[in-house]
């Protein structure tokens, strides 16, 4: 019974065959989510769900059933997202930018969606270039820190 209901819902989405009542509900739910996203707690929750939950599930699928290209896309996404979140922590951006979590959600979608390939663009044109240029000094710094930690 649940499978039939799910199948009908999927067909409605694919055919864009919603009743006015269903469409009103979907629009209302979307507006409510956007409104809640203006509050820091809900905004962060919303942005984190977009940024982590769905991509994590897609990563699970890629690791178990995906090809090399899909894994490469997802690894690029996680690398870019890590840099993005590290910058967020250091800069304290959420406290300075109004509606930050809505912007972060949109950026995360741009990074992740296969139609935009934002993460591959950022990775190939910025992160990869900077890391390759500084790889020797980064490796040396990591080695020095590791050696100091082992001595103490």
Automatic annotation (TrEMBL):
Give the source's domain of life in one word: Eukaryota
InterPro entries (alphabetical):
TB2_DP1_HVA22
The family database entries (Pfam families) matched by this protein are listed as: TB2_DP1_HVA22
Cellular component aspect of the GO annotation: membrane
Chief location of this protein?
A: membrane
Record flagged with keyword Protein biosynthesis: no
Q: Is Ligase included in the keywords of this UniProt record?
A: no
Q: How does it sit in the membrane?
A: Multi-pass membrane protein
Q: Where in the cell is it found?
A: Membrane
> What are the record keywords, sorted?
Membrane, Transmembrane, Transmembrane helix
- What family classification does the UniProt entry report for this protein? Belongs to the DP1 family.
**The protein's name:** Protein YOP1
